[in-house]
Structure formats: C-alpha cells, structure tokens
Amino acid sequence: xxxxxxxxxxxxxxxxLVFLAALVYFDSFKLVSLRVVVAAMAIGAAAAxxxxxxxxxxxxxxxxEFVTYSRYVSPWLEEVLKGAVLVYLIRSRRIGMLVDGAxxxxxxxxxxxxxxxxxxxxTRPDAHVVVEIxxxxxxxxxxxxxxxxxxxxxxxxxxxRPEAHMLVFLPGLWAAVTLHSGFNHLLAxxxxxxxxxxxxxxPLMQFVFARSEKALRDWLDADLDSDIELLELINSxxxxxxxxxxxxxxLREKFRGEVVADMLCxxxxxxxxxLRAKGLILLRESGLEAPIDEETREKLAEIQYLERSIGxxxxxxMRPVLPMSSxxxxxxxxxxx
Length: 337
Hints:
By secondary structure, this protein is mostly helical. Helices cover 79% and strands 0% of the residues. It starts with a helix and ends with a helix.
C-alpha cells in the first residue's frame, strides 16, 4: 500500500469528522442520536456517488470550461443532492430545531466530503500535502458547513412561514450555493479559501447552538405549563363546558360522531406524549437517558391509528384548540426515535 497515501489520508479525512464530533458533543439536549448521524453520513456518501455521474454528464453536455462549471453549475447540483433528504426531514417534522438541523446537515455534508476526498486520494496518490490540507480543512468542512446552513435557514424559515411549502427551502439553498460557489471561486488561492471557512464556520455554529438552545428552553418553559393545563382540562368535569369542549362539540355538524370522539382521544394522547417528550428532553440535558417504555410505544401506535382515522381535514379542524406547530409535531417524532 502507498505509504504516502496512508500519511495523507488522516489529513484529508479527520478534520471534518472531528468538527462533526464536536457538534454532537456540544449539543446539550442530545437531540440527534449517533445512529442517525451515521445514517445521515451514509446519505451524504450516496449523494456524492450520484454527483460524480451527474457532474460528468452535465460537464460533457454543457461544454463549458471546468473552472466555470465548478463555480456556477456544480454547486447547485451538489447542494440540491445533499439537501434533498433535508427537505423531506423538515417537511415531515423530523427536524424541528436549528441545532438538530445543523447536525443533520453537517453529517450529510461530511459523508459527501469523505467520499469525494477518498476518490481524490485514490486518483491522485502523489498529491502534495498542502493540497490534502486544503481538502481536509477547507473543501470537506465547506461541504458540511454548506449543507448545515441549508438546514439551519430552512428550519428557521419553515417555522415562520409553514404555509409557504417548498418555497421555504429556496433561501437556504441560495445560501448554501453561495458559500459553495464562493469557496470554488477562491480555489486559485486555496489557503485563503480554507482560512475563510475555518474563520467563518465555527462562530456561526456557536451562534446557532446558543440561539437554538435558548429557544428550546423558552419553548419548554412555556409549552410545559400549557400542556399540563390542557390535560387537566380534558380530564376534568368542566371540559364539556370549556371553549375547547364547545368547539369539539360544534364539529359534530361537519364530522361523524365517532370521528369527533377520536379527535378527543387524539387530543388527550397528543398532550400526554408531548409531556413525555419534554420530560425526555430535560433528562437528556441533565445527562440522563430514559428508555421509552411499552406504554409509551402503545400510545405512539395508537396516535398513528387515530391520525389515519381523523384524516388530514380533521387534524386541520383541530388546530384552533390543539397546538400543531412544527415543534409540537417534531417532539412526537423525537419521542419515537
């Protein structure tokens, strides 16, 4: 085996892994498990494989110089490929906080970068060590950072504009492509490009983590009290006379009686699981891990059945009396991981 290749491999591969490990370590609430991080890296690796073939096809078809292509075309293709799974995860409420979006995104970008750097090492085993330093500390972290930025911006916009559907992803995609393209513009000055990434990305991640954790604590404090109050109301004798009970009763004019009964069961289960999820998050912040018990698993299965029974229209009709924000739906998914 080429000893030169073995010497360069850690320089090209380890920096992005160390950065990813640091992101996971500094996540106080441990929202993303190691299993999910590894799966995200595998998705990024698959995206790298797809980009290899698609870039080749586009480069031949467009007949432009490689430098022009790397600056203006490949960043769009590669960021779309890396971001595609993030679109699904955010749309399905599997990502609800900036910090887990950052970790998911960086993990996908890391998997992409590892495959790209391994390919570069295999095809250019005699590359100078400076080149591999640039690829390890610059190109690799750029890929992770660009996808993390895509996720961060998309989560933030989706929370404020949930009705915008797919349009919420355009600002994040634009930001990721801009970073990627800007880095490729500086490849003639690789040390400058690498220094730029290393100076800009860590402070950005620190800011995102601090803001996300503050937002999560504020949401926990406010939502915990409202969940307890709603559960107490549902279980009380005054429920039928409350505004929530009155509203559910009014739905009998539009839905069958058994569907309205399922709505009440769904509301109770949703609040119970939300309280369980918040307790789990607080335990993780304290460094403790509480396994999901069988009763909780049964409730998760039951709420999925009730979702199908009520249907999309029924869930929309419940929004005035049951919190259905991206965070409210995310916490139920997080509980079932």
